[in-house]
Every structure is written in C-alpha cells, then in structure tokens.
Amino acid sequence: MQLAIDTSTDTASLALVQDSQILAELSWRCGQNHTVTLLPCLASLLSQTGLELGSVTGIMVAKGPGSYNGLRVGISTAKGLALSLGVPIVGISTLAVAAYQHAEAGLPVCPVFNAGRGEIAAAVYQMKGGSWQPIIGEHITTVEALCARIERKTIFCGELSASLDDRLKKQLGKKAVIAPPAARLRRAGFLAELGNRRLAAGDLDSPAALSPIYLRRPHITKPKRGKK
Predict the structure, then answer these.
(1) What is the C-alpha to C-alpha distance for residues 14 and 53, in angstroms, rounded to an integer?
(2) CATH superfamily assigned to domain 2-94+187-201
(3) Is the dihedral of CA 101, 158, 197, 77 positive or negative?
(4) Is the whole model's pTM more than 0.85, yes or no?
(5) Which of 14, 85, 168, 179 is the most exposed place for a label (fewest CB within 10 A)?
C-alpha cells in the first residue's frame, strides 16, 4: 500500500493506494492549519479503511511549488514516515499533479497558482507517447507573459480566481479552455498515480536530500547601514 501526501497550498489531500487502485482519498480546505490537520486526517483515513500505517510500502509527496508552511509540513511528515517505516519516497511537482487529471484530453494543460506580488506560478504539460511531459517548465511569471507563450488551445486549471479566469479568456479567447471548479481540485489520487510510476521504475528520492520547490526565494530585507 502506498501513501500520497499533498499539503502544497491551502488545499490538502491524502490518498491510500494499492495495486493502482485508490483505497481511500480525502481532500480538504486546511488554510494555514497544515500542522494541526494533517496527522489527524491521516489517522481518520486509516481508521475508515481498517488499515495500519505499518502496511505502507511507499510514500509520494507533492514537493511544490506552494506555500512555505504547507510544503514544510507535508515534506517533513513524508520524510519522517519514510525513514521510520524504512520505505522509499518520491517527490512530485505540485503543478504536474494539478494538471494530470486532464492528461487524456489530448491538449496542453497549464496549471496556475497565485505566487503573490502580482505574479503566478505556472507550467505546461502534455501527454506524449504515454509519457506526461513538461512543455514549458515550472516558473514564476505574469498572466501577460504566460499568455504570450500560449500558441494553441490549452486547458487552464489549478487554483484560479474569477478575475484570473476573465484575464485568460480576454487575452487568449478560444485558445483558453478553463476547467470548471470541480475539475480544479488537486487530488492525492493523481499524485499517487504519478508517484507509482516512479516507484515502479526505481526512480527514488533520498529522504535526506528531498526538499521543497518554492520557485521564489524568501523575501529578505537587507539591514540598513548604521550612520558613521
């Protein structure tokens, strides 16, 4: 049985998977309460299925981009469990997870997250030859700069606001296919599917070396020089 953990943003998700089948899945709006809600939700999921944590044979975790607090909680929990249980771990891009539920649509898929400061985190993926591939890598950008790189009809998903929906439609017209709200929910079941591919291929991460992807460095104010 594998465990998938995603606490990248204000939306968190957990999934228990065995033989490529989802045994149980839970997604919830946690705000900034990742530390408070994650382990109780995991305990509840295990209790509902009658399973034990010791049955976990692999862990996959969303590694960002996302919020500093959310990613720290999810990744530190995943690494701690992997080390204590002695099981492999893989980290998967949160943007790749958000886009993956639209993989079979045959179109490029662009997940978008708010990055603050008037910017967004985005990437573009597409299924090619049975492989989920990045067409445009993860980066921090603006809506205008992103739209300038969109050349064909593309599905937009992720944590889109109403104003962002309007800006994409205005700038891209029919090239922008906006996923409905229910199809934007980031689910750990899709994280598990991507993670299981890497587990099966033996493409593992080191628990010690696995770290979050923030894309943006923390804002640090330089100290003012004292008067001479």
Answers:
(1) 13
(2) ATPase, nucleotide binding domain (3.30.420.40)
(3) negative
(4) yes
(5) 85
